[in-house]
Amino acid sequence: MERLGFIGLGIMGKPMALNLVEAGFPLTVHSRSAAPIEELVEAGAVAADSPALVAEVSDIVITMLPDTPDVEQVLFGKSGVAVGARAGALVVDMSTIDPDATRRLASMLDERGVAMLDAPVSGGQRGAIEATLAIMVGGPEDAFERAMPVFRAVGQNLMHVGPSGAGQVTKACNQLIAGATIEAVAEALVLAAKAGVDPAKVRAALLGGFAGSKILEVHGQRMLDGDFEPGFRARLHRKDARIVLEAARRLGVPVTSFEAVAEALDRLVEAGGGDLDHSALVTLLERASGASLRPPG
Fold first, then answer.
1. Residue 201 bears catalytic tag
2. What would the pLDDT profile of 35-79 be if each residue is shown by its tens digit?
3. Distance between CA atoms of 292 and 285, rounded to whole angstroms?
4. Catalytic pick among 14, 171, 201, 239
5. Do 12 and 64 meet the contact criterion of CB atoms below 8 Å apart?
6. What is d(CA 250, CA 262) in angstroms, rounded to the nearest whole number?
7. DSSP code per residue over 188-205
8. Yes or no: is domain 4-163 CATH 3.40.50.12370?
């Protein structure tokens, strides 16, 4: 069993790291916040003071970080992974970042004899806790095979989609579809409420037909309940929206429906909703229409 390092113990990273400890992997962790480190140490992990020190004692280093600059800093900063990693090590970046940056970072690591996989995930906090994440992986196929025991400990739907950067492109496609569908569900439920039809009954009816989806099931219920505790924070989907739009512009692909979603995410975050679940997009529509999905009181 290879020695693992895990850097980034946020809303997704902490439960993923806990699942790796539970699976029996020797695990060294590092994060900016002390509380999740303490929880991992209590579970059996070892703490390290820097990414470089994580890399020194790890065969495979996993990163789960908010954005592209964070991954760049953790990998190639003053005390970054590249400082401590030995030739033959493997970096698995499970963050959602820019595909072009991923290819550049992979090339820089390759020059040091270190392989890299981009392996962003889908499934939210619940998927991270329950180890049911979908993992979309780009990079060398032999590295993918090497990392399979790790992936099996945190996810279920594991797919090697192509060379370096392909995982991030796939995740951008996922976020495009997820964002557009959340917005569509919100619009449909608010339309029903404004028309005087019970949105809960509309959701139940739609779940049994062609419009049924996981997002209608899970996020539709969140909207009806007004429960916006973050499974996936709106500010992170806003960041992902930027990645989608930049990739689409570079490639000359129209993403007309998603542009409206990206604008709505901007408005939600700017209104102070960045740490709410992305299903809180419905609140913008409720305010604009004067409708509510919940009965008064």
1. no
2. 999 999 999 999 999 999 999 999 999 999 999 999 999 999 999
3. 9
4. 171
5. yes
6. 17
7. HHHHHHHTT--HHHHHHH
8. no
